[in-house]
Structure formats: C-alpha cells, structure tokens
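Journal club side-thread
Mid-discussion, someone asked how the predicted structure for our own chain would compare to the paper's figures. Pasting it here so we can look after the session.
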Amino acid sequence: MKKYYAVYLFLFLIISCKQDKTSESNALQFVSEKADFIIQSNDLYTFINKIDSTAFFQKNITLLKSLPIEDLRNISKFTSSGKSSLLSFTKSKSGYEYLYITEFKEGFFDLDSTKNKTVETLTIEGETFKKYTLDNLMVFTTVKNGDFIASNSRTLLLESINRKEENSETFSKALAAADKSKTSILINQDQLDRTLKNTFKENSLPLNFSDGWMSLDFDLNSKDIQLNGISISGKDADNSLKLFDNITAQANRIADITPTSASGFYSFTYQNFGKLYKNLEASRIDSLELPETNILNYTREAGVIFNTYGNTLVLTTTDPELAFDAISNSQDIASEFRDISIYSNNIDYSQFLAPLVPPMKLKYYAFTDEFVLFGETITVLENLISSYQNNSTLSKQGYYKETVSQLAGSSSLLIVGNNSHFTEALKNVVNDELLEDLEKIDLKDYPVVALQFVQDSNFSHIHAVMSKKSGSIPSGVSTTVKANSPIKIDGKIATTPFLVKNHDTRSLEVAVQNEKNELYLLNTDGKVLWKKKLDGRIIGAIEQIDLYKNGNLQMAFTTQNSFEVLDRNGNDVKPFPKNYKDAITQPLSIFDYDSKRDYRFVITQKNQVYMLDAKAQGVDGFNFNKTKTTIVLPPKHIRINRKDYILVSEENGQVHILSRQGKIRIPVKDKIKFGENQWYPEGRNFVNVNEDGKIVTINEKGKVTRSSVENSVHLKLVVKEDLKVTLSENILKIDKNEVNLDFGIYTKPQIFNVNGKTFIGITDTQAKKVYIFNKDGELLPGFPVFGTSNLDLNNSGNSIQFSVKGDENAVLIYDL
C-alpha cells in the first residue's frame, strides 16, 4: 500500500529541477534528446541569483544539491550577453553533466583579471577546445557555428559538437512551446519515469509519464512557485495521459471528501465512463469484462486518497440514487456510523480502473452525499465520514482554495500533496539513501502542492503550483480542528465525556460513564486505563480537586446515593465514599472560598443541605441545613467585593443568600419562578433567568428587578468573569455580538477560559453539530463538527482539546 505514495514525489522532482526554458537557435543541434532535462533562460545569471535569494530554496537547498549551481553561476557571469542560453543536464555516475550553449560574442569568458587560473588548449579528433581551471571550477569550452559551448564533461562536449542526428518532432514542438521571455524547463518524460521508479523501494506506480517531453514555464515570486506548460507525447506513446484522449475533463470534487489528515490524493475525471473504459481496456492485456449494469456508469470522477488509516478509492457520482441501485448486489450492512450505513463489498472496482488505479482491497463501501467510498477497513471509511461531517476536509481550508484558484477549473488528472503529512508519508517509501535528504525538506510555509493535467488534442496542459500560506496563525489556535479516532466503550454513554488531567504526565484523559453505571478512564488514544462499577448514575459534572494540596489530583462527584472521591488509578480516597440512604437530588457543589484548596463540599437532598470538609465531616459553624420546599438548583458560591455569598434556590420561589456560616446575608422577599438557569455575578448584583424568560437581578439590598429580553424564547444564560452569553431559540449573543444559528435544539452555552483565551461552546443535538466561538462571536475555523452532547474543553500545556459524545457508545476527541 505504501508504494502508492510514490506518485506524489513527481511534484517535488519537478520543483527540485525546475530551472529554465530552452532557446530556438542553432544551439539545438548540439543538444541530445537523451538529456534528463533542458533549461532555457534569457538571463541565467540573474535567475540563479534569484533562486539563491528565495526563501523556499534557502530552506530547501537539498533539492538543488545535485546540480552544479556554482559552475553555472560562474560561466553565466562571464558570458552574459542578453541573449537566451540553453542548458542541458544528463545524469552520470558522478552527478549531472551539463552542456551550456549561448550565442557567442567577442569578450566572452574573458578571465585575464582572474587569479589562480590555468588555461589549456586541447585538440582531440580534430576539434580544438579549451580547458579552464579556476578555484573549484573546471570547464571545457569551444565556439561552434557562432555558439559558445561549455561543459563540465569533455566527452559530452565532443559528442555535442559532432552530433549528426535530427531532433524528433515531439522534442521540437515542446521547445517551440516554451515562452522565450521566461525561464523554462523541458523534462524528458522517459528519464523522469525512470527516476521515479528508481527512487522508491518498490517499482510499481499506478501512473506513468513516459515517452515525450514536458515544456514548462517557470514563475518564481515571493508567494508562489508555479509551472505552466504542456506535455507532448508521440502518437503511439504508452503513458497515463494518453488514456484521456477524447475524454472531456470535469471539475474535481474529491478534495471535498479528503481529510486534512490525509497525505494527499489524486483524481481523474470524465464525462462518460464508457469512453474512458474503452481507453483503459485498450491499454490492458487482460480480457476483463465490465458488467453492463455497474456503479461506474453513474460516475464522473474517480481517485485515491492516501491516509494513515489506509488508502481509499473514491467515486463522485452523477446520480447517487442510480449509483446505489447499480450496486444492489452488494448491500449487506456491516456497520452503522453517524447515521450512515457501511456495506460489505464483493466487487473489486479498482480492476476496472486499471492502470489509473492500483490493485486495492475494497472490502467495504459507503455513500455520503454524491461520494462513494471504498476501503479495506471500516475504520478508514469512518475517518473519511467523520472528517466530511466535521468540515475537516482539504477543500474547506483557505490554503487549499488559494492554491487551486490558480489552476484550471477542470482536470483530466489532478495530483495534490498535503505537505504537513506528505513528507512523513514519503519516508516510508523512498530508498534508504534518500531519507537523510528528505528529513531536510522544509515545506511548513507551503501547505499544499498541486499538479494538474488537462488533456487536449495530442498534448496535455500542465499547471503546477505551490502557494505560500497567507497571514499568521494566532498562537494556541490552529487553522482547523482535528478529529482523533473515535473512542468506543462497552454500552451506551450516559454522561458528558469529561477531560481530566493526569498530574504525573500533565496529559489529558477522558472520564465517562456508560448506562451500566461503569465509569471509564481512558487516554486520548482510546486505551482503557481502568473501569469501575458505581452504585448509580453520576449527577452533574466530574470535578478535579487537590485534596492533599500536593499537586496530586482526584475526581469528585456524586451519584444518587453516594459522594465519591477517586484517585487517578480509580481507587477510593479515604474516608470516601460517603453513602446516603436518601437520594441526592442536585449535582455536587464545591466551594474553595480563598483558592487555598480548603474545599467545602455541598450535598443536596430534596430540601436539605449538608456541607462537608475534606474529611467528609460536617462543617462546624455552617448552620443552614433545610428549606421549606425542594431545592431546585445546586447551591452556588459567588464572591462580590471580597464578600462570599451562598445562594440556595427552592421550589416555592424563595432564594436564600447566605454567608459562609449559613446565615441570611441578604434577605430577599420577592419570589422567583426558577427555570434551569444558574445564578451568576454581574457587577455588584446577582443575575438569573426565570421561567418566563426574563432576566432577574437582585442587588446587594435584596431588591428584585425583572427585565424582558427581545425575542426571548427558552432563554439560556451563562456568565463567566466579565463575559455574558445568552441563547434564545437560535440567537446566540456573546456580550454584544449576535450570532444567528440554524434552527435546532441546542445545549446551554458553555464558557471555557484556557491558555489565556476564551471559548464558547454549544451543541445542536438535533443536527449533531458542535460549534465553538471566540469571545468576539467568531466561529473557529473548521466548525461545526460532529457531536451529540455538551462538550468539555481543557488544555495540556499549549495543546487544547475538547471531548464530546459521538455515536451512542463513542467519545470524540478534537484538537484545536
């Protein structure tokens, strides 16, 4: 499977040798078509200096190290005439041998003022030439038919000036296509194909580019590296591009389903698969028969996505319903994932696409919108579906859009390398002697490289581009959200998956309970660290505390009949658990008045309140323990102006604002219809939302005021520090910034302060979408993503992650 990454190195082989274009003159009579590539430039000396000053080549000098750049700089410096020069390169055992040709004029190669040089005049086979040696430069030169010729190989020089054979029509056309005002490169496709096959540990490539020449104009600027030109092959050429003769190119769509975690993809398009299949069939020697009714007849694009989970064959359909009916002989459901069925497959569609697609094991398939995905495992299909639903695909990324905007709108063949993962993938397939050079390649400023072929009559248009990413990424937040593999547990998930810190490694772990009341602790890779059976469902959140004030963290929570404190290994922390006969009716409240880890734990049972210390003993001096009616909200601690307040809300509308000792600190006479919202501080006041959707404010004297909110429907409120967030139906308001969400069923907004940044999270449980905004009301890149519950967001050092429930037994971890 790894060998199929080889096709992508083609992009970099082009970039690494892209130098210049050829010139039309008598110079061509000296150039052999056996050359690996040929450069034409109207100012070679300036061009070489431009390469040296370009940031990309400064960081990636290894791409040019096999070329005799210094020799060419010196020669072009002493032969600059404002005329085009021609430069051919031929690979030898000792490196590249070059032949430099330009129109001769008096004063060329005048080295009279140059010190430390030797000059010899040699005559061999009736030809007279000079040998110059200066510093590290050794070059042979002559003048022939008005052209100055130089080479680092005496043999090559002699062969060139004695050359008799005519250039082929293909070669001449390729040279004529070069833009004489630019630096251009002609690439020998036979030599390129051999180079590709010799570069990799395995010699099989799904695509080949043999027989013919590429003529490419090279544009180099501070932002982009571009190649534009053509590929010309002989009439009877046997290469992949000829398969697209008389095939109408279409727009490529596979980037819409390609995860940002993929190494890249290639895709090819066609208006009519029947026509393409005739070309494919003619290129093969087998007698494979395509069934009359098959899914390929309802497609317009096919391609392969390269991913760490495995490679995927993707088809873009013209009519998904007809395509589904055409595969009806293989519709046994193997799995369900996020409301999408994954089927077992018994037909190897890759064989019908050979030689454009390599042999693949396609055991499963799935439909998602217009795409059909085939893969060897269910996991590889789940990864693509997850990324697609999360908008974590290449086509959604600004850097990808920027790159492909410089390509033609339709492609016969499109090859894309996702550079953040591409170079790592290449390490697994290149020959060992190239690994050291590969380690030195730095492409972090160039996220994507794209190579496009558009087949025309007897030739192909070529466009290659690598764009430098624009702007800067804010510290601590990536340009996209990355989904990790789903973590599956036994049984349905019953609680929000909570992120807790491992105090030993400072990494994040996931605590989650299933419907069997089993509490799991897992690492973010999905490994079960421990599992513990509890006596009931966890009420509210799992909180982390430092009970012994030594940096070791414990998990604290309540079930219906117990108050639990567990260490990171899942063991009870004595004297816990504390068991209760009567039911606990509100989530555990934890007060840390002075942030000194002198915790107070508040247990609520209907209308009774118990405050415990770290030893699970009742706190002396707290004298409030009972209300007249049931307590409807978890008791809440709020500090305003260095004063501590404890708010207890009961069913009859009474709110008790207490001191630390449980005494009434602010008497409130007015009754309030409590909803599901909690109390928060706002300036010197206490604020909540009542059952009628009105904002309820209590000042320090206990006066209650109610204010209406425009378009208030099921108003939800959350306040943290100075940030106020409300949600009314589909209107999310973050301070003064208003966001119109799609209509749905939303969880209460959540505010997270992490690494000096503020994030607001909310989930549409109906559409199964998670949104995260910054404090200015801007949706973070890559959102919404898939999720079905409240989320929990935390950090491990500079890394920020959040957890959310996915499918009924799956925890999802995302990296920001």
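Post-session note: The chain has a mean pLDDT of 85.
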